[in-house]
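Final paragraph of the annual report: two paired records, presented back to back.
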Amino acid sequence: MEDTVLLKALRRNPDTGMEALMEQYAGLVDSVVRGKLRTPPFSGEDIEDCVAEVFLEFYDGLPRFDPARGSIRAWLCVIARNRAVDRVRRQYAGPDLVPLDDAPLPAEGNSPEREIIRQEDRDRLLRELQGLERVDREILFRKYYLAQPSREISERMGLTVTNIDTRAHRAIGKLRKRLEGTDRG
């Protein structure tokens, strides 16, 4: 069914229009969502919920849809990708993650001297991270702090997976050399 026919059906009788829309695009939306939520901890139920959210968001945003700017198919794909990525982000950026400045360090004794050394080490690491290229800092942050897989980072940053992995490896090597080369004082 063409976009113009679907839009008319959605405006004339929303129930029938949504049924036709879902019949035509449910497989596509499911495929996009499943591509992002294919690994645990996400279940089939999470995927179904996300697909339902996509169609609901589409319907809620229907008054803003402009066929001159793109197709229903493209709009649904964008919504599906964004909803799935939001779920991944919520899963991995939950309350377990804290800013680097507030991150607890492994307990190796709680003496004041130990705490000073830990703070100095953290400060050195942050200074050395700032010395890396912006792209490398972002890759390391996404990979090791947000625990995003290389494939997702590559999609977000427009680089190949190989490039992401290579840059991360090289950046870690640079950090290691810089940290080994600096004296604690």
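The closing record of the year follows.
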Amino acid sequence: MYRVLFITFGCKVNHYETECMKETFRARNWEVIGEEGQADAVVINSCTVTASGDSRVLTALRKARTRYPEAVIALTGCYPQADPETASKITEADLICGTKDRGRTCELVESLLSDRKRTVLLSDHKKGDLFEPMKCTHYEDNTRAFVKIQDGCDRFCSYCIIPYARGRSRSKPPELLREEAAGIAANGVKEIVLSGINLAFYGAEMGLTLADAVEMCAGVDGIERIRLGSLEPEMMTDSQLERLAAVPGFCPQFHLSLQSGCTRTLKAMNRRYTAEEYFALTERIRRFFPDCTFTTDVMVGFPQETDDDHAESVAFIRKVGFSKVHVFRYSRRHGTPADRMSGQVPESLKTERWKSMTAAADEMRETYLRSLVGRTVPVLFERENCPEFHQGRAPDHTLIKISRKNPEKSLRNRIISVIIEENGPDNCFGRPVVDLDYDLI
């Protein structure tokens, strides 16, 4: 039996695609191993969002070639797709392919095991490309499954290379989604997280919407929760929100990508909304979901961002009241319009702004977690990795911990109502509403 090691960088979509490739390898009688084993092949699924991300991929390639000198090394994903000329010259990789034809990865690796003929398969995405029919029904976690239902992006934000790496927006056909959701449920998974590169645009080319995908998954026996991945703040109409609110298992946690709370900066980023329009959307969502939470991503140090722009952005995130904010510094990306802009912000100033934005985000996070104390929430318990606590996620994705009296017993994959009694810096502690058997917990 051949053995394969996967190394994955980047977003949840990348991780989903790795899981799909693992399933393909297993179907052809390969053993998927961890880094401690001896590999016959190493598949590196890359990310190219930032230049530093490219560097991490190249470092991983060099380490893999040194550690597994006889293995077939395959480089796939966004990095080679976005920069095929540079990627094709990487000598550490025996197989170089991009964000297309991942279903053939195992077949191509097996071919290289016999003839060792270095292979480069990189072709441009074209308008009208179909959604690649990947699926994964086996998850080691067995409580939550990420399912990619949309790929590509038509928006071309001025700082982003991803439309060049992923192509135009396209969606998973409903029949394939239904089949995949049924397979996931049959393996005992209770929660599905719908994911995509620009998820809000799911189904646009088919006359469907994101609400159709949620309703379809909710109709599958065994699926008790449906959660959305990162969303661009577009396409969320009142009609869609009304339909989502009618789905009993829908988790009202909305990760609405913001990038900046300053309209002037948003325009320079080529985002398609103003700060005022973004705020109006959060208010509309709250009408349909009074107990919803918002999380987001915010960039600091974009070219030409002034101190006043930054202050406006900080004030805006406070105004929305996010439960969690991922703050990151702008990173120049060759091949994007923002890389050619004048007024690049010095790294030292980016760091100062990152600190002030992070301080505001941390304060909001603490305020939100403190507000949960006294509430009762249904918690889906996850893999046991702590002897002192059982832990799982509430519908708002907050990590909840309860005391674990018996390290040999598990609550994994059970949904239990928990009263929140205390908050920590990034999670809450509670107790079950109904006393559980002492031997169980």
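The CA atoms of residues 4 and 293 lie 40 Å apart. This concludes the annual technical report; the extension proposal builds directly on these records.
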